[in-house]
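tokens incoming
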């Protein structure tokens, strides 16, 4: 079986400056005191140099200095990968002041937005006039230009060529999954395959597949690996079409699944056990994956990819994307139309003319253009940190250090304190 990576609950790019103590039965989080507030004068606080542990977490340690020593040891081991080139304290001071006194671990539920992001978005909205993209006016054209720039940003974020991929803005990952489920070219010969570990929105696609007469199977990752075969699927680009859906990263446990499955299903190495003729297409749910890891669609060209931007930036909510291969987009059957997805529709006659641009046909109604424009500032701030590669290094420094501590504890070796220590 191909090994899978495991990670901590994914930290968003601004989830910085927190001290986590993981016991076997509970998760306890202690936030290092921000540089504008020192606890060194407090009897229950612990401070040594620039490393501070908040006094309210002192009861977790018999000697609060143990926490400081543990953190200093961690920083020494991970100086090159942790903390965005030693900018972590300044980031907390400038952008996360409201987190003081709070414990937050739900980063797969929602990221934590930075104050800098909110200020930049607010300044932009106060400085520009944005109109409805479906109108024709200078303000509308300005909006359309900004929205199209964000589309290009999303493709670049996934290392996807605009010649091969398009971006359909949705309400989130669930909206992207629903869109494909409703539009997929299901027939009685189609098969829907999905992993046991999946978002419940993937299970919703199952209902749409059944309604169209398609069959379905749920599989474990072991069953997928065991199904690898030299007997390739007899590929037919005209169908029947089959869909395999799985998460790049499990939203709950943080398990990372092989991106190679994308290529293996598309090439026919996988899939023949469930459908030995036709064309397999792959839906990759990347919502929990992309906040902390690089997705390269030039290497793993999934047909459909779901993204939720609030899991990356924390703000805005209510906007996601379906990143879709152009050749796959041509196979989707659009039934409903409304708003800007249609150029002309007659009341008396059964006639409609949809917009020429295929991806725009799937964006019914007025797009959430102010939120889409706000994404640009999230991407800019992410770039200033070093992009997803820098976030990945930061998160992985914790993951690897925790793995080593866990290994030492499981083998009976000495562990510095009674907890497994991690710094987020």
């Amino acid at each position: 079986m191909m090994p899978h990576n495991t990670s901590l609950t994914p930290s968003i790019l601004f989830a910085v400056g927190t001290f986590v103590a993981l016991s076997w039965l509970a998760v306890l989080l202690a936030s290092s005191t921000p540089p504008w507030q020192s606890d060194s004068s407090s009897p229950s606080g612990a401070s040594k140099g620039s490393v501070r542990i908040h006094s309210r977490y002192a009861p977790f340690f018999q000697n609060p200095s143990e926490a400081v020593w543990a953190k200093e040891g961690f920083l020494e081991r991970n100086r090159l990968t942790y903390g965005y080139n030693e900018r972590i304290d300044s980031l907390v001071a400038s952008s996360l002041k409201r987190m003081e006194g709070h414990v937050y671990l739900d980063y797969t539920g929602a990221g934590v937005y930075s104050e800098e992001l909110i200020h930049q978005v607010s300044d932009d909205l106060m400085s520009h006039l944005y109109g409805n993209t479906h109108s024709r006016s200078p303000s509308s054209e300005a909006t359309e230009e900004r929205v199209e720039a964000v589309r290009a940003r999303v493709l670049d974020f996934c290392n996807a060529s605009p010649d091969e991929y398009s971006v359909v803005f949705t309400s989130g990952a669930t909206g992207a999954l629903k869109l494909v489920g409703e539009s997929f070219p299901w027939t009685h010969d189609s098969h829907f395959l999905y992993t046991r570990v999946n978002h419940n929105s993937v299970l919703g696609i199952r209902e749409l597949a059944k309604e169209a007469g398609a069959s379905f199977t749920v599989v474990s990752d072991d069953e997928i690996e065991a199904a690898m075969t030299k007997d390739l699927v007899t590929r037919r680009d005209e169908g029947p079409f089959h869909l395999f859906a799985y998460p790049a990263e499990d939203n709950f446990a943080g398990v990372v699944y092989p991106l190679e499955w994308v290529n293996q299903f598309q090439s026919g190495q996988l899939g023949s056990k469930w459908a030995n003729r036709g064309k397999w297409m792959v839906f990759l749910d990347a919502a929990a994956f992309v906040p902390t890891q690089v997705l390269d669609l030039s290497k793993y060209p999934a047909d459909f990819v779901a993204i939720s931007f609030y899991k990356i930036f924390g703000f805005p909510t209510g906007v996601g994307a379906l990143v879709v291969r152009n050749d796959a987009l041509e196979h989707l059957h659009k039934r409903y139309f409304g708003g800007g997805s249609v150029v002309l529709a007659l009341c008396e006659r059964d006639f409609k003319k949809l917009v020429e641009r295929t991806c725009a046909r799937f964006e019914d109604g007025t797009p959430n253009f102010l939120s889409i424009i706000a994404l640009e500032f999230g991407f800019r701030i992410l770039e200033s940190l070093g992009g997803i590669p820098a976030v990945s290094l930061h998160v992985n420094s914790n993951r690897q250090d925790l793995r080593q501590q866990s290994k030492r504890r499981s083998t009976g070796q000495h562990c510095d304190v009674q907890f497994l220590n991690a710094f987020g």
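note: The first helix runs from residue 65 to 77.
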